[in-house]
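Entry 14: structure prediction run for HIT-type domain-containing protein. Input pasted below.
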Amino acid sequence: MATRESGRIKDSASRRVLDQATRKRRSRKALEALEQDNFHDDPHANLVMSKKAPKFEESLEAGRKQDRKRKTRSTEYFKQRFRKNFPMLLEEEQSLNPDGPNYLTVQAPDSKFPERKLCAVCGFPAPYNCIPCGAKYCGTKCLSTHEDTRCLKYTA
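Run finished. Output tokens:
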């Protein structure tokens, strides 16, 4: 009688297993790549709406009233016009309060509780680790998603 083996165990022998330092370096590079992706101005900030484009939030009556009286700009117009991006907000905060705590200087003490282990795919508590990359996962469904899309995505 032959014993059955798990396909995952056979497959794990062919995979590369990373040490803790490489895992940390790869996770840091992944975070830096995400910050680079998110750290930019709004690409649609300079778009100007055509005056001929229909405004769907207005009713016909409101449209007729506006034809008669002068148009006033709403607060939403000024919110869009004078929007600040993240670097501008940081610079403004630094200039307003250079000595006090701000976004760049604030620090919290280390937690007295252990680090939570959450699934890298869905965010639920995760008791298992991926063998090659060390990412946490909660079950077989999240493991297959992790292996298909995330595992070893960012190579060191």
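Notes: The mean pLDDT is 77. Will compare against the previous run tomorrow.
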